[in-house]
Design brief:
It is elongated, with a radius of gyration of 15 Å. By secondary structure, the chain is mainly alpha-helical. The two termini are 23 Å apart. It has one domain. The longest helix has 19 residues. The chain is 76% helix and 0% strand. Helix 1 packs across helix 2 and helix 3 runs antiparallel to helix 4.
Length: 91
């Protein structure tokens, strides 16, 4: 996503606008991942939880294919990263 933002920003002043545009492009993915996570957490079956986790992984892999060097990270790694992002945004 970083390269995508840089490609869309023609100047340092345009960086924030480009970042928000790219973020908007991925709003559907974020919503789908959040919905799956809520469903997974509400599930009472281990089989169902694993199925939801697999669907999350499949969505991330599909999104990663749009990049030159597709790679995904586990959802756990993303979740561990979120507090750092929130802290940086608040400060």
């Amino acid at each position: 996503m970083g390269d995508e933002v840089l490609d869309k920003s023609s100047s340092p002043q345009m960086f924030a606008d480009a970042l928000l545009e790219v973020r908007g492009d991925y709003s559907k993915l974020r919503r789908q991942l959040a919905d799956l996570e809520i469903s997974r957490m509400n599930s009472t079956s281990l089989i169902e939880r694993r199925r939801m986790r697999r669907q999350q992984k499949d969505l991330l892999e599909l999104a990663a294919q749009s990049f030159d060097k597709p790679a995904t990270v586990s959802l756990e790694a993303i979740i561990r990263y979120i507090p750092n992002v929130v802290e940086a945004a608040v400060c």
